[in-house]
Amino acid sequence: MLRYPDLKKAFALLEKQSDLYRPTSFWADASRKLAYEFEEIGIENFRHGPLALSYFVPTYGPPTMGLRKEQVELLTRTFQEHYADHTKGRLALDAYLSGQLNALADYRVLLAANSAPDALGLTEFSESSIGSPIEQYHFDGRSYSRSSLNYLLGLSLLKRHTDLSGIKTVLEIGGGFGTLGEILGKAPSKGLKYIDVDIPPTHFAAEYYLKENFGSQNVASFSDLEGQSEIEISDLPDFTVMCSWQLEKLKGKVDLFVNFISFQEMEPEVVENYLKEVTRLKARWLLLRNMREGKQKQMASKVGVKVPILGEDYSNMLPDYSLVATDVHPFGYQTLDGFHSEVQLFKRS
Question: Looking at the whole model, is its pTM more than 0.90?
Answer without folding.
Answer: yes
